[in-house]
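Record format v2
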Amino acid sequence: MNLAVNNQSLILALGLVMIALAIGWHEKLGIDRDMIIGVVRAVIQLFVVGYLLKYVFRLDNVWLTAVLILIIIFNAGYNAKQRSNGIPRALPISVGAILISTAVTLGVLMLAGAIKFIPSQMIPISGMIASNSMVAIGLCYRNLNAEFKQERQAVLEKLALGADLKDASRDIVRASIKTGMQPTIDSAKTVGIVSLPGMMSGLIFAGVDPVRAIKYQIMVTFMLMSATSIGSVLACYWAYREFYNERKQLVGPSN
Amino acid sequence: MSLLELKGVGYQAGETTILEDVDLTINAGEWVTIAGPSGSGKSTLVRIIASLLSRTSGELNFAGKSIDTYDPIAYRRRVSYSFQQPTLFGETVRDNLSFPYQIRQRSFDEQRAVAALDYVGLAASDLDKAVIDLSGGQRQRVALLRNVMIYPEVLILDEVTAGLDAENKAFVWSMIRHFNGDDGITIIAITHDQSEIDVATRLVTLTDGRITGGTR
């Protein structure tokens, strides 16, 4: 380990926040308050999580690990729902899609022997998967709302010709799944060229051999592809029906 | 027995009354023209008949049974609705004429499509023509063909000739006369055009959401 972050260096690093605050103040961006709240929240949340994880890792209890993973999934689902802009049943849809995408991805990684059901591996990996799935589902919702609004006339015409809901929504659902997956695909294309992603950077930073670090990163890239694709597909196919009523008439988007 | 029967049909959007107490009976094979000023509820009425909207009061029967007893998808295949400014799907004319087959999981009848195109003055080669290269009149013809590639029992036309020039208008009406006279499709047509109102065999006039003229 060649990490040298101590409390003193953290306090000195706070100077970086001061630079951001100074820019915000000078340019009259009006984000000083948000920035301070963001920094304070980040510090408190990370300290709480750090001590909590230390305790959980030491305890190494299967049930506690599972409960924490479920809490992560629920929070991710709740946040994805916030981006749904009024799509009915967005909470169960989001939680369900993230739960399944996380479970399938974790299951495959465990069966492949890449990770073990121990808190120090399961919790951070679940967080990465759920958060990527959450972002993808949020993008799917935004696109569904925008497309149902923009393509309203085309959807109505397909319904008027006797198309079922799936046929009437197919193009919109496809475009939305693609939108949800696009950031993950783009980042997979540029990984190592444009950015050294968080996990890989962290490992290298902590002194791990870069060749070993990239193997972890490759695993992360694969698992995020799987998680975002499963999450996007499930959320879009469950959510598009919410734009219609029980008489199969187009009623959404709500605004 | 009447094909469509509306008894006291109303539609309320929030506090606003769009349609009120509409009674109308339409027999199979009839051609009913619906006229009335803008905002009188004509489009709402035909969208209710097409099951794209649900009435908020009254009864609507199709072939002797309440519309609520039909699966909406199966019903819309029998009662087809054509819009004023149609959106053509996909890239080519073929994408549009094959759509009714696709949604029924049936293989596309290309021969029928070519014959239909010929009937409306388009060539067989136009089947693969890009929809963006069609004129307004050609778009409307293709859209109408899309509605009748597999015959419905009722064809609802929501001002389908609005915005077309005289030649295209005459052509579209000759198509519709053919669907009604030769194929026996019941026609419900909204129009603002006085010349179409003048020749209507059965006229229904709507004012402020109520039937105020014509034959019920």
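Chain A has two domains: 1-59, 60-243.
Chain A has a mean pLDDT of 91.
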